[in-house]
Write a structure and sequence with these properties.
This protein is an all-alpha fold and 215 residues long. It contains nine helices and no strands.
Length: 215
């Protein structure tokens, strides 16, 4: 006897399916750029300048993950889909993962662990300065991303994780100054606009809350 499948999926079934499989899907999607990078390397498709390609590739995906992380709260509040909140930590850790690859590519492949060259670059190139500062701010966020650290730090955990806002500003400066040196503003303007809109949304909400408390 033929099985008759329903022509539609009930809303609760769809929601349960997303809740059950959402995290693995998001994890695989976030990991896919790294898998793609390995594929490029395996097949010798890292262009004529592989170090520059890897640096640009990992840096771009670090910014993408930062944008997605910052977009979770606005999307959750505007759509009412509170389950989006559970993806924020994962996306934040992937932001750190790609930022770490970006940093290590510069330290190990570009500078070949030459501490003197790294030191000079830090003070000579402004975009390097902003990039390293952003990465250093990311470190404590990644180290305290677990639920255990959240319980230990209590209210200080939320205060610490407001570092994501200066990180976003430092990343914008790092990316824009680097692109400005090459007169390549097209892609930079897109990410600056996205991060600017996300930060403006948070600032406006903070100002509204502060204003409402006074009145």
């Amino acid at each position: 006897m033929a099985i008759k499948w329903p022509l539609y999926m009930p809303a609760w079934t769809l929601k349960n399916s997303i809740n059950n499989f959402g995290k693995p899907i998001v994890f695989l999607l976030a990991l896919s750029p790294f898998i793609r990078l390995i594929w490029f390397g395996w097949h010798g498709s890292l262009t004529a300048n592989p170090i520059e390609f890897i640096t640009r590739f990992t840096g771009t995906w670090a910014i993408v993950m930062l944008c997605l992380t910052l977009a979770i709260t606005p999307l959750r509040i505007t759509t009412g889909w509170n389950s989006l909140q559970k993806y924020r930590r994962m996306l934040g850790l992937f932001c750190f993962f790609y930022a770490l690859l970006h940093f290590l590519t510069w330290v190990l492949l570009d500078q070949q662990l030459d501490l003197d060259a790294i030191y000079q670059d830090f003070f000579k190139r402004t975009y390097i300065t902003f990039g390293i500062l952003a990465f250093m701010c990311l470190l404590p966020l990644a180290m305290t991303s677990t639920k255990g650290m959240q319980k230990r730090l209590g209210r200080n955990w939320s205060r610490l994780h407001t570092l994501v806002y200066p990180i976003a500003i430092l990343v914008v400066l790092h990316y824009y100054i680097h692109k400005a040196a090459k007169q390549d503003f097209g892609e930079a303007r897109i990410y600056i606009a996205i991060l600017g809109a996300l930060l403006t949304w948070r600032l406006s909400r903070w100002l509204l809350r502060k204003f409402s408390k006074k009145h």
